[in-house]
Structure formats: structure tokens, C-alpha cells
Amino acid sequence: MAANKFLRCGKCLMITAVVAMLGCLAFLYSGLYPMGADVPHNGLTYWGLETMRERSIARAASAIEVPNDLASSERLLKGAADYNAMCASCHLKPGKNQSDFTLGLYPAPPNLAQKGDEHGHDGGHDDNTYALQRQFWIIKHGIKASGMPSWAPGHDDERIWNMVSFLQRLPELSTRQYQVLTARSDSTKERVH
Amino acid sequence: MRSKFITLSIAISTLAFTLSAQAHDPKEHMNNAEKPDCAAMENMDHSKMDMNDPVMQAMMKQCMGDMEGMEGMEGMEGMSGSEAPQGDKPAQHGNESSTEQTGHNH
Question: CB A176 to CB B104 under 8 A?
Fold first, then answer.
């Protein structure tokens, strides 16, 4: 009797799962989900994608070893020039609050000239070491379907750490400081090998 | 003979692909780069500068050529990252106040 009930219940669950799967497939193929970057995700999709992103990065980045000379002026200078050339058009700089990319990309790239709690894309962690590991991982590997490319092809780890170094001081820089640090002076040219 | 030709072709095309995907040199960014605007630094009160702040040190390095002979700047010339004062220690952040002292906040 009990076995019969269990079988019936199992059958019901199986049918429900198949119907749900077919429903999902039908939705995928219907083309009803708005894919344009000018229409935000619904709350459930956004939560799902964000949770998956943060959990994935946390798992992958936790073992990364952080160099102990991240605050050096040499790293700062090298990272500054690369940030200006490669990142500033999307992630902005002191004195600039928006660009075509920040207006048009979805999700909008965080304004890294602001502190983490201001732009709200710091992953919600208070652990400073993890924040560094996370930034390094994101620059190196990029994030799927977000507009953030992987900079690993063409940039070694040291160069990426230099950018992480610069990011730590970026929110407190004035426009003039930013200009001086990111410009390519003759002495910068000599430093770059 | 034919397999040798195929192997050689694959090797050449792989090499071409690899070379095209290699790191871009930082010098590539320099072609249309602007020079640092060091004029503002010359007007700053150097007694209030924190020379231990890596941001300050980095700015000095950038402007070394322009600021030669300035009061208080002697000895900074030719300073490398390893020779830089205490600011190159791993302590991250915590220099907000010293950055304020540069007088660049608007």
C-alpha cells in the first residue's frame, strides 16, 4: 500500500519535472525574454545571475596570492597608465561621471573612481584581501556577457596586479593627480620595458 | 612528403596565430599619450607634502624632469621604487589625509 503511494507520488513528481522542463524550453524558444541592453533583467533573473557570479568568483579567487608590495609607487604608476588606456572609458575617472559606455552597457560598469560602498559593485565583502583577489580575478578573467573582457591574453599577472594597485588609490585622486599619474612622461617611457 | 607539408603548414599557422595574440606592449599606448601637467605641483606648499605617500612619490617621479632644482625636491631625482621612502610598504590605503595635503582636492 505504502509502496504504491510512493510510486504514484514519484510518478507525479516526474511528470511535474518534465512539464516544467518543457515549459522552460518553450519559453527559451519563444523569444519572449527581452535581450536588449536597454531593458533591465527582472528581479529573479538579476538575483540568479548576480548570485552565480559572486559565488563563482569567490570560489575561484580565494586561493590567489596577493603580492605584499601593492602599495608601491612603481606599481601605482604602471597601473595608472594601463588603467587610463584600457579601463577609464567604461569605469570612468575623477571628474567624469558618465560615458557612452556607462549609459549604454547593461549591467552598467561600476564607476571605479568612487569607493566600493558608493558604486555598490564591491561584492559586498569587508575582507580587504578578498577585495584585492576579486579585482585581480575579474581583470584577468573578465565576466561573461557583461562587457568586461578578460585581460589575461596579452597581460601578465604582474601587469594586472599593477592595475589592482592603482585601483586602491583611484577613488581618492583628484583630476589633477589622475592626470599626472596616468600621463606618459619621458621618464615613464624609460621605466617601461 | 605530404604529411611533412601538412605538419609544416600547421606549425606556421599556429606560430602566426600565437604571435598575433601576444601581449601588447605598454609602449603602444604612448603614441597618442599626453604629458603630465606638472605645473600645478610647482605651486604647491612642499612643506605640507607627505613624501611617504606612494601617490606623492609617483607624482614626483612623473614630474622629476620638470621640477629639477625645486626647493625640497633635491635627492628625489633618480629615486627608484626600491629606494623610495617608507610609503612603499604594503600598508594599503590609510593615506587619504596625506593625499589631501597635496592640495589637489577640488
Answer: yes
Under an 8 A CB cutoff, do B84 and A180 touch?
no
Q: Is B49 on the interface with A (CB under 8 A)?
A: no
Chain A nearest CA to B12, separation (Å): 20
B14: left (phi over 0), alpha (psi -120 to 50) or beta: alpha
Q: Which fold has domain A67-187?
A: Cytochrome Bc1 Complex; Chain D, domain 2 (1.10.760)
Q: Are A106 and A38 in contact (CB under 8 A)?
A: yes
Report the C-alpha gap between A140 and A148 in whole angstroms: 10
Structural domain harbouring B68 = 38-106
Q: Residue B38 and residue A179: Cβ atoms within 8 Å?
A: no
Q: How far is CA B79 from the centre of its chain?
A: 13
Q: Which residues contact A2 (CB under 8 A, 6 or more apart)?
A: none
Q: How is chain A split into domains, by residue range?
A: 1-31, 67-187
CB B29 to CB A180 under 8 A?
no
Domain total for chain B?
1
pLDDT tens string for chain B (106 positions)? 566 655 656 555 554 444 444 555 666 655 556 788 888 777 777 777 788 899 999 998 988 866 665 554 444 444 444 444 444 444 444 343 344 344 333 3
Among residues A181, A130, A145, which one has the least CA distance to residue B41?
Answer: A181
pTM reported for the whole predicted model: 0.72
Q: B residues 64-103 near A, CB within 8 Å?
A: 64-65, 80-81, 84, 87-93, 95-96, 99, 102
Chain A residues within 8 A of B84 when measuring between CB atoms: 72-74
| ipTM score | 0.75
E strands, chain A, in order? none
Query: Would you call B106 and A179 a contact, using CB atoms and an 8 Å cutoff?
Result: no
